[in-house]
Specification:
single chain; 231 residues; alpha+beta; 6-stranded antiparallel β-sheet; 8 helices; 28% helix; elongated
């Protein structure tokens, strides 16, 4: 066994960790076990003398958690399961890989509705036939835990303070972006499928336009909703 100190400082992709050698050796037959039972000189050190591992430094915290406890507890809304699985496979942590596979397979069923009010922005300077979709906000409705799981950091909860648990429902979330295809991609990646949609015109009177609102845009105002389910 290599002559490593009982306490180690690591530099994993630029993120620094301090841990025990015993923790790193808790899972035999893994790449980490092989690294820290070999020769210390075989591992590159950074300028501060930390052992350098060229992997995702942020996700390595979960690798350490698993090595400490032989279990993993991911935060609510964690969206990096696939990347963490890649890290687990790289380090040959079979138990962690199995756990992540089970988390993916056992995702709870549910329903999320995406809604938006939009119009079309028309071209100027002789480009009257050019139309661009114009969305003001993407609204998200559903169970709080599911919405956080799917949309993560792109979810804006400022209009719905968390006064209850994650199992409550809300219709007051919206996204920090207005790219509806990105929202659909996030839902698809999380195992949701489109179950139905509806749309309606919401055009108001052209005589009561708000300042800065174009009459042609007002004419094409509409509201759409898309219902996604996961069985």
């Amino acid at each position: 066994m290599g002559d490593f100190p009982a306490m180690l400082e690591l530099n994993v992709g630029g993120v620094h960790y301090t841990t025990k050698l015993k923790t790193l050796l808790s899972e035999p037959n893994t790449l980490i076990y092989e690294m820290f039972t070999g020769k210390p000189s075989d591992i590159i050190k950074d300028a501060k003398g930390r052992y350098f591992i060229d992997r995702d430094g942020v996700l390595f915290r979960y690798i350490l958690d698993y090595l400490r406890d032989s279990a993993i507890s991911l935060p609510e809304g964690f969206r990096e399961k696939e990347r963490l699985k890649q890290e687990a496979e790289h380090f040959r942590l079979a138990g962690l890989t199995k756990t992540l596979n089970q988390l993916t397979e056992n995702r709870p069923p549910g329903c999320i509705t995406v809604g938006y009010r939009g119009s079309f922005q028309f071209g100027k300077d002789g480009l009257a036939d050019v139309k661009f979709r114009k969305l003001s906000r993407l609204l998200i409705c559903g169970r709080v835990a599911l919405c956080r799981e799917v949309f993560g950091d792109t979810l804006n909860e400022s209009r719905d303070p968390d006064h209850g648990g994650p199992d409550r429902y809300t219709s007051r979330f919206f996204l920090k972006h207005t790219f509806i295809e990105q929202a659909f991609d996030d839902l698809q990646k999380s195992g949701f499928r489109l179950a139905g949609s509806c749309g309606s015109g919401t055009s108001g009177s052209s005589t009561d336009l708000k300042p800065g609102v174009d009459s042609e845009e007002n004419r094409w105002n509409h509201y759409n909703e898309f219902v996604f389910i996961r069985d």
